[in-house]
C-alpha cells in the first residue's frame, strides 16, 4: 500500500513539469504559433533557476528567474516569427539547439553545486488519510498550482472575452484583424506567457524535482510537452491528465527497477518516449478529428494587409 502511495505521489510530481510546460505551449498554439524551442527554453530556465537558488537560497526567486529566462527567449522567438515572418518550425528548432548549448556552457560551474535541505510540505490532517494522504497531500505547492493553472486556463479560454479573442486569433487572424484586434501583439503576448510557463517548468525541475543541475537534464520533456498539446486536442484539462499519464510512465520505470524486474535499464528508460510515439501514432490515424480540434491558423504566418 505504501509503495502505491509513493508511486502516485511521484507521478504527480513528475507530471507537474510536463503539465506546466504543456499548458504554456497550449497558449502559444491557441494563438496560432508553434514553438519547437520548449526543450531549449526549459534548459536555460533550469540553469537560471538553479543558479539563483544556489546563490540566494530562495525558491521563489529561482522560479522568477526561470520564468524570466523563458520569457526572454520566447520574446526573441516571437519577434522573429511574428514580426520578421521567419519559419516557425526552423526558428523553434534553432532555439532548442541554442538553449541546449548555452545552458551547458553557462551551467558548467554549477554541476557540483548542491542546494540545501528541501522543505517538506504537507497538509495537516489530510496527510494522515490512509493511502490518499501520503499520495496527494505531501506535495510541493507547485503541484497544486499546476492543477489550478489548468482550471484557470480552461476558464480563461472558454469563459472570458480575452480568451475568445485569443482563440479567434488562432482560428482566423485575418478576421480578428478586420475586427480591429492587434493580432501580432496578441500572438507575441501569448508566446511570452507560454515561454514564461516553460521557464517555470524548467526551474521547478532543477530546483524542486531533482534538485541539481546536470547538462541536458530536461531529457526530452520539452518535446513530450509539445506532443501533449496534440494528445490533448488543445484542451487544458486533457493536457493535465496527459501529463500525469506520461509522468506515471516515467515513474514506472524506476518502480520496476526498484522491484528488481529483469529488464535492461535502457529499455525502461525508453518507456516515456515510446509511450509518446505510440500515442501520436494512434492519434494520427484520425486526421479529420485532429483537424476539427486544431487551431486553423496553427503554424501559419500573418502579415497585416498582406
User: In CATH terms, what is the architecture?
Assistant: Orthogonal Bundle
Number of domains: 1
**In total, how many beta strands?**
0
According to CATH, what is the class?
Answer: Mainly Alpha
Computed Rg: 19 Å
The largest β sheet comes out as:
none
- Tell me what portion of residues adopts beta-strand conformation: under 5%
Going by CATH, what is the homologous superfamily? ABC transporter involved in vitamin B12 uptake, BtuC
Q: Can you count the helices?
A: 14
Amino- and carboxy-terminal Cα gap: 62 Å
Mean pLDDT: 90
* CATH topology annotation: ABC transporter involved in vitamin B12 uptake, BtuC
Order of helices and strands: HHHHHHHHHHHHHH
Membrane topology: Multi-pass membrane protein
InterPro entries: ABC_transp_permease (IPR001851)
Transmembrane segments: 6-26, 33-54, 60-82, 89-110, 141-158, 188-207, 213-232, 239-257, 263-283
Pfam families: BPD_transp_2
Amino acid at each position: 500500500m505504501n509503495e502505491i502511495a509513493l508511486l502516485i505521489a511521484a507521478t504527480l510530481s513528475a507530471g507537474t513539469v510536463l503539465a506546466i510546460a504543456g499548458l504554456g505551449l497550449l497558449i502559444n498554439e491557441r494563438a496560432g504559433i508553434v514553438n519547437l524551442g520548449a526543450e531549449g527554453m526549459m534548459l536555460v530556465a533550469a540553469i537560471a533557476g538553479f543558479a539563483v537558488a544556489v546563490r540566494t537560497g530562495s525558491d521563489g526567486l529561482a522560479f522568477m528567474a526561470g520564468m524570466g529566462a523563458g520569457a526572454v527567449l520566447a520574446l526573441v522567438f516571437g519577434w522573429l516569427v511574428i514580426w520578421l515572418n521567419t519559419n516557425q518550425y526552423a526558428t523553434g528548432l534553432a532555439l532548442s539547439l541554442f538553449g541546449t548549448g548555452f545552458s551547458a556552457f553557462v551551467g558548467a560551474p554549477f554541476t557540483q553545486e548542491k542546494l540545501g535541505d528541501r522543505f517538506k510540505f504537507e497538509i495537516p490532517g489530510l496527510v494522515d488519510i490512509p493511502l490518499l494522504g501520503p499520495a496527494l497531500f505531501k506535495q510541493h505547492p507547485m503541484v497544486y498550482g499546476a492543477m489550478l493553472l489548468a482550471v484557470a486556463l480552461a476558464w480563461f479560454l472558454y469563459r472570458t472575452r480575452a480568451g475568445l479573442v485569443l482563440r479567434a486569433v488562432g482560428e482566423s487572424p485575418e478576421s480578428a484583424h478586420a475586427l480591429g484586434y492587434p493580432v501580432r501583439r496578441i500572438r507575441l503576448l501569448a508566446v511570452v506567457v507560454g515561454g514564461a510557463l516553460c521557464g517555470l517548468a524548467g526551474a521547478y525541475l532543477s530546483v524542486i524535482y531533482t534538485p541539481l543541475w546536470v547538462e541536458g537534464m530536461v531529457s526530452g520533456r520539452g518535446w513530450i510537452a509539445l506532443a501533449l498539446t496534440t494528445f490533448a486536442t488543445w484542451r487544458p484539462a486533457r493536457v493535465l491528465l496527459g501529463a500525469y499519464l506520461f509522468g506515471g510512465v516515467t515513474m514506472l520505470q524506476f518502480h520496476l527497477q526498484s522491484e528488481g524486474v529483469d529488464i535492461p535499464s535502457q529499455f525502461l528508460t525508453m518507456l516515456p518516449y515510446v509511450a509518446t510515439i505510440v500515442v501520436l501514432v494512434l492519434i494520427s490515424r484520425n486526421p479529420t478529428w485532429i483537424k476539427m480540434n486544431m487551431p486553423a491558423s496553427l503554424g501559419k504566418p500573418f502579415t497585416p494587409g498582406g
